[in-house]
Known about the structure:
This protein is 17% helix and 32% strand. It has three helices and ten strands; from the N terminus they run E-E-E-E-E-E-E-E-E-E-H-H-H. The protein has helices spanning 122-131, 133-149, 155-160; strands spanning 2-7, 10-14, 19-23, 32-35, 38-42, 52-53, 62-72, 76-82, 87-93, 96-106.
Amino acid sequence: MYAVVQVGGRQYRARPGERMVVDRMTVAEGQAVELGDVRMLVAEPGDSIETAVGRPKVDGARVTATAVSHLRGPKIVVFKYKPKKRYRRTMGFRAELTELRIDEILSPGQQPADERQAPTTRRTSRRAAAASPEEGAARAVEAEVAPAEAPDETPEAAGAAGGTIKEAKAPRRRRAPASGEAAEVVGDGEGRGGDGA
């Protein structure tokens, strides 16, 4: 499988394991980069996915890469000339480039390999609790203390402390003044200095 990805106004073919030279990106060498503007996913024989064409891009698809190095392209000589005016200008230009190594192509809904984990089952969680009895006891004490403190805390405070917010209350709406005064309505074209109105 390979992807057609757009980076900096140009489209490139990205295949896992290959390298790609794109316009300079503001990343450090060795840093991971995620390219989200995937225009097309092309399936090859033996792939589990089908070819997907984006309109304009494939939703949820992304390409993960690593910045290998920063380099400059070959020198291009730019020469300006106007006949009979004694005007000649010679300039050089070298493009600032970044070399990327394509790590993985992720189809919609797929997670990166480093984030994929084995599903935790009840048995594995019991083994983890048995492996560290001090942590299990500390969690039990925290579980006993937390319900007693919960009524005093607001949902916002629980969220700031790292807890979960079960329900967020909607903000209160203010009622209109009871005096019955209507709000001032400005018609189209008033105060804009258009055609003399």
